């Protein structure tokens, strides 16, 4: 579910080189839990696109399923978008890339969406150096389905039900390097000063660009 944001803004909001104010890059009102790191990542995406003077119609948002994959509803309302199925965003991105090579493909995924059900698709998108930005909003759990451990949960950590995770976590940045990814970054949802430049650099990078963003609630 999405809610429309009130349109009222300060009349003297600064404009970027294209003449757009930042609200042109925003989305609907978020329905995620208050304080969720995913919302801060969305805000960094908005800021990066505004500062980079991106024409919104040149960008396509792609996602799978999860709280993280809901976030494209909360940024870049004037861009193209496709909310696909759980773990299947890379194949949709591959098809879109084949149909139109001129768009910026901006993929958003979760740690469950990427490191569990979507692992097969993820590794092959990297191996083929698919031209896209791939952001993992990594909270170490299946947030949308009430917080079960994901494959990136720290070994020994306690989940929402109080169970201790007995398994070692998968390091998505390390795995991407092993697979030969040419742009690999890791950041934290709460550090916009670091994350915004990383998003900008990923958008300039030709080929697959991964940003693994630690996004605790
Ligand atoms: C094929 C399929 N299997 C399982 C589910 C149930 N499901 C929905 S979201 C989700 C996990 C999401 O976790 P993550 O990708 O980490 O996103 P988060 O909510 O933590 O941001 C699961 C298992 C589903 N929607 N589709
Ligand atoms: Mg998650």
Characterization of this structure:
- The chain has 217 residues and is of the alpha/beta class.
- The chain has a single domain (34-214), classed as Thiamin diphosphate (ThDP)-binding fold, Pyr/PP domains (Rossmann fold, 3-Layer(aba) Sandwich).
- It is built from seven helices and eight strands; from the N terminus they run αβαβαβααβββαβαβ.
- The protein has helices at residues 37-51, 67-70, 89-99, 111-115, 119-127, 172-178, 192-204; strands at 59-63, 80-83, 104-110, 133-138, 141-142, 148-149, 183-188, 209-214.
- The protein has a six-stranded parallel beta sheet with strand order 2-1-3-4-8-7, with helices on both faces.
- Helix 7 links the parallel strand 7 (183-188) and strand 8.
- It starts with 36 loop residues before the first helix and ends with a strand.
Question: What order do the SSEs take from the amino end to the carboxyl end, as H and E?
Answer: HEHEHEHHEEEHEHE
CATH topology: Rossmann fold
Q: What summary fits the major beta sheet?
A: 6 strands, parallel
How are the strands of the largest sheet arranged?
2-1-3-4-8-7
Mean pLDDT: 96
Q: Share of helix among residues?
A: 25-40%
For the record, what is the CATH homologous superfamily label?
Thiamin diphosphate (ThDP)-binding fold, Pyr/PP domains
Compact summary:
The chain has 217 residues and is α/β, with parallel strands linked by helices.
How do the strands and helices of this protein lay out in sequence?
Blueprint: H1 37-51, E1 59-63, H2 67-70, E2 80-83, H3 89-99, E3 104-110, H4 111-115, H5 119-127, E4 133-138, E5 141-142, E6 148-149, H6 172-178, E7 183-188, H7 192-204, E8 209-214
Parallel strand pairs: 1-2, 1-3, 3-4, 4-8, 7-8
Antiparallel strand pairs: 5-6
Helix pairs in contact: 1-7
The chain binds thiamine diphosphate and magnesium ion.
Magnesium ion is lined by residues 66, 110-112, 139, 141-143, 150.
């Amino acid at each position: 579910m999405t809610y429309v944001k009130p349109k009222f803004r300060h009349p003297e909001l600064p404009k970027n080189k294209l003449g757009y104010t930042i609200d042109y890059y925003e989305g609907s009102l978020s329905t995620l839990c208050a304080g969720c790191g995913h919302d801060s990542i969305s805000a960094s995406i908005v800021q990066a696109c505004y500062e980079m003077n991106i024409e919104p119609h040149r960008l396509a948002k792609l996602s799978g399923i999860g709280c993280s994959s809901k976030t494209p509803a909360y940024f870049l309302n004037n861009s193209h978008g496709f909310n696909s199925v759980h773990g299947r965003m890379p194949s949709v991105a591959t098809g879109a890339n084949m149909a139109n090579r001129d768009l910026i493909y901006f993929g958003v995924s979760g740690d469950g969406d990427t490191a569990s059900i979507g692992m097969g698709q993820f590794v092959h998108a990297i191996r083929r150096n698919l031209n896209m930005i791939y952001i993992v909003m990594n909270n170490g759990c299946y947030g949308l389905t009430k917080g079960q451990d994901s494959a990136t949960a720290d070994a020994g950590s306690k989940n929402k039900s109080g169970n201790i995770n007995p398994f070692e976590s998968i390091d998505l940045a390390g795995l991407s390097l092993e697979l030969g990814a040419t742009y690999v970054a890791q950041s934290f949802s709460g550090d916009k000063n670091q994350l915004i430049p990383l998003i900008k650099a990923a958008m300039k990078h030709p080929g697959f660009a991964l940003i693994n963003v630690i996004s605790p609630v």
